[in-house]
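R.M. (postdoc): so does anyone remember the format we settled on? I'll just put the structure tokens first.
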């Protein structure tokens, strides 16, 4: 099954913290038996605590469908939109970081599907930076072929050479957020280019990556692509192998943003409840801490 059930409900009401005070996990749970006898768990996003006080998040109900293969769980696109509170916080964080960052580029590194593109766009907008996706630049450099075709027609080494060239060009520029390819971290030369700016590792649990990637399919990701078999398990297996090879390389980044840590801090059980804006806010906070050292 290439794409699994993923369904979301966005309720336009706000949770008041007092109404859930005393709930140990700060999350609401609803259980419901479905027609096909699978249990759907619906977590509810609640409030976030900040130095300035607390702010409320809209109640986002998301249906995750559990099955023997893991559970499909993606935020609906409308859940990617920032709330007013999130927008204010990211604006304040961006203003705080500006003098420290001083136009230095931000390079997002991480496994395929870790959200480098999605979070990168939010960051670039908040900072007034330009956004570049290395994969897209490589595709353009190779005359519009897709990453999958470049791998098929010319091989991985050709792709990696182009990736290094693209990073080299980007390293001469300022005020960019760059979403790097998942494998850019394996070449030491690429790090030399990225060291001109700040590198940030988006560390996302493999099972969450497998769920995201399974939901959209593996056609555009040649290193994960498979023709047959259970999509989730195959993707999970390949991601695990890649991560064993690359885990240490990702850890070279200046800053590590762990979605598990953010979820634990905010009282969410599932990292899939974290919106790109919440993740981007954490990225900025961690960069400020790094630059203030
Ligand atoms: N915070 C999030 N919550 C849920 N889904 C997300 C989140 N961020 C990204 N996604 C989804 O995960 C998938 C991969 O995201 P994205 O393309 O941003 O990752 P990437 O790191 O740039 O991937 P790649 O390196 O493979 O290009 C997309 O379908 C995107 O919508
Ligand atoms: O993890 C990887 O090696 C890759 C990730 C993608 O972003 C692309 O750069 C390409 O599919 C290779």
């Amino acid at each position: 099954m290439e794409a699994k059930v993923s369904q979301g409900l966005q309720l336009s009401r706000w949770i008041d913290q007092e109404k859930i005070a005393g709930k140990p996990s700060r999350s609401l749970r609803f259980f419901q038996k479905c027609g096909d006898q699978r249990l759907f768990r619906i977590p509810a996003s609640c409030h976030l605590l900040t130095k300035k006080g607390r702010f409320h998040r809209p109640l986002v109900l998301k249906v995750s469908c559990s099955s023997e293969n893991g559970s499909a769980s993606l935020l609906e696109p409308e859940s990617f939109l920032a709330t007013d509170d999130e927008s204010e916080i990211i604006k304040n964080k961006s203003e705080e970081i500006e003098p420290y960052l001083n136009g230095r580029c931000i390079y997002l590194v991480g496994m395929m599907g870790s959200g480098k593109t999605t979070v990168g766009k939010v960051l670039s907008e908040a900072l007034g930076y330009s956004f570049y996706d290395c994969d897209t630049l490589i595709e353009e450099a190779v005359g519009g072929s897709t990453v999958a075709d470049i791998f098929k027609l010319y091989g991985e080494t050709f792709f990696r050479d182009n990736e290094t060239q693209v990073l080299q060009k980007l390293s001469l520029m300022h005020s960019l957020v760059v979403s790097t390819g998942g494998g850019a971290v394996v070449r030491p030369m690429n790090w030399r280019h990225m060291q001109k700016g700040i590198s940030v590792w988006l560390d996302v649990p493999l099972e969450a990556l497998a769920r995201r990637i399974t939901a959209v399919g593996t056609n555009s990701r040649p290193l994960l692509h498979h023709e047959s078999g259970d999509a989730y398990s195959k993707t999970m297996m390949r991601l695990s192998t890649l991560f064993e090879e690359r885990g240490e390389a990702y850890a070279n980044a200046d800053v590590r943003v762990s979605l598990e840590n953010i979820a634990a801090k905010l009282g969410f059980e599932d990292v899939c409840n974290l919106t790109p804006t919440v993740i981007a806010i954490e990225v900025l906070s961690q960069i400020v801490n790094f630059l203030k050292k």
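R.M.: ...and that's the designed sequence above, right after the tokens. Also worth knowing: Residues 1-73 have pLDDT under 50 and may be disordered. The chain has eleven helices and twelve strands.
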